[in-house]
Amino acid sequence: MNKTNWWSVGAGLLLAVLALSGPGGPAHSAVGEFPGWTAAVVLASAAAVGFARSRAGLERGFGWVCSVPRARFNFGIFAVAFLAYAGVAGFVFKGIPRIDDGLASLFQAKIFARGALTLPLPADADFCWAFGILGHRQGFAHWCGMYPPGWPALLVPGVWLGLPWLVNPLLGAGLVVAIAELGRDLYNGRVGRAAALLALPSPFLLVLSGLHLSNVPTALCLCLALLALRKLWATGRWLWGGAAGLAWGVALLCRPLDAAVLGALFALAFLFPAKRLDRCRGGIVAGLVAAGLAIGATFAFQQATTGDWATPGHEIGMGSRGQFGFVQLTSYKAHTPATGLEHTGLRLRALNDHLLGWPVPALFVVLLPFLLGRARTKEWLLLLPLPALLGTFACFWYYEVEFPARYVSAATPYLFVLAARGLFALRESTANRPALARLPAFLAVSGTLFLAVSLPAHFRAYDADYYDVESVLPRVVRDYGIANAVVFMDAVGLDRSEADDDNDFYATGFMRNELDLRGDVLYVRNLRERNADLLRRHPGRAAYLYRYVRDQDKAILYRMRRTGEAVELEPVEPRTPDLLPAPPAE
Description:
Layout: H1 6-20, H2 29-33, H3 35-50, H4 52-67, H5 70-92, H6 100-113, E1 119-120, E2 133-134, E3 142-145, H7 150-161, H8 167-186, H9 189-199, H10 203-208, H11 215-235, H12 238-254, H13 256-270, H14 275-279, H15 281-306, H16 313-318, H17 337-354, H18 362-366, H19 368-371, H20 377-383, H21 385-393, H22 412-429, H23 434-437, H24 439-459, H25 472-479, E4 485-492, H26 507-510, E5 521-525, H27 531-537, E6 542-549, E7 554-563, E8 566-571
Parallel strand pairs: 4-5, 4-6
Antiparallel strand pairs: 1-3, 2-3, 6-7, 7-8
Helix pairs in contact: 3-4, 3-24, 5-8, 6-7, 8-9, 8-11, 8-22, 9-22, 11-12, 11-13, 12-13, 12-15, 13-21, 22-24
């Protein structure tokens, strides 16, 4: 079993060259930024594994972790993961969506929570639009989210409880447990628990589990589908096939493309050996029925929202930019294979930095079973989701700059298992070489200690005005007593430190509106010459123009007064640091 597979070594070397040759070099970006702290981590780790007593202590510690009863370990790591991820969601992201995709999902969840698929378009919706929302601009008489219904449906219990921001931390914690169970099922309990311990503090999972995005539930459901398939293979019981189909179906309802790609890989793996097909035929039928129900639900939702069962919402919401493949998107923009390769390199760079947060590239640890000649069919099946998703999304024009590599997040559970297996394979390979036998422990200890460097560096990107939302608006509304009012919103200035330097940040106000736009404060877009029309609809409300200054993370505020057919702007004097003196009105 432990005989070196030289084909595996060759493949591992080739994969390592491809995975580690992206922009920025192979080492974590924080290594170059904090060389002193990195050196301190290396020295401390060398001391920890260099002395017999401390090394024995580390062995005893991991041995104790592995001796904890399975249910108690799973509950404990679930609780710790939930608290960590909830902390990120609450303290870093303030419990609100920070990316338009999450805003649209929460919007649809609120519609579902009312027992509806869509809602009639309110009278003022022509002043209220946001990316991901279908409505007035698409010529519809209703409005709804443009994304599949699975993730919004999972958010509904959180909406009912007033805590939708806790749903993803719960699912993220469940994903850590699923990773432990997958490692245990494929290898043994030690590998499973090591994989869970690698996943728990992962900068990648910490952030993704704190956002209102569909990636974590998709990864969890696909991982559960694979576990259920493994049970079906082992037992032949049809219930496990139904469970696999159900889990895959939920993933499909969250992120159809991810589910299709990984579902195809799982199905191909199921075909061998062929003799299992007859023994599992009941489970196969049950799984196909469950999956078919999910596909039917997708078509029904599209019929209700877009008016065409075969047209997904994003094709309407994104227009020509919803196209897939190497195509001409607009008269001045095309997606080319060269761009796809560039995006692939950037995604690999992000995974190397943030999957583990270690000073060495994460994919080097993931590829250890291949580099050491220990990779067999099992390891290849665990690795395949990553290149499959990388290849798939290389064909899509958009690079997810707001959270790099999230498009391949469905592959990450299997990468954590491979990384854990790689550390044990390295230990086995060096067992008879005392000088090298400490290397696995050194990698684990230095990686864990380096999180104290890499995590703060990672979280710097998630500041108060992280991606589509800024933090000034709610404070200004509170501090300046804005009530029973219409707030017109726009933004000025360019923040060159942000990827989307001309973001209008209207999402900050849109998310605070009631679904029927009848809340105490109505947040609308500044449509300038049309503003007087909206003010005539709301004669009893005060009116303000709120202008966010991107490059200063502050705002300018005007009172708006209607005089006949015109609207006059009266500057509001700053009383707090959030406001800048307003220049004379145009």
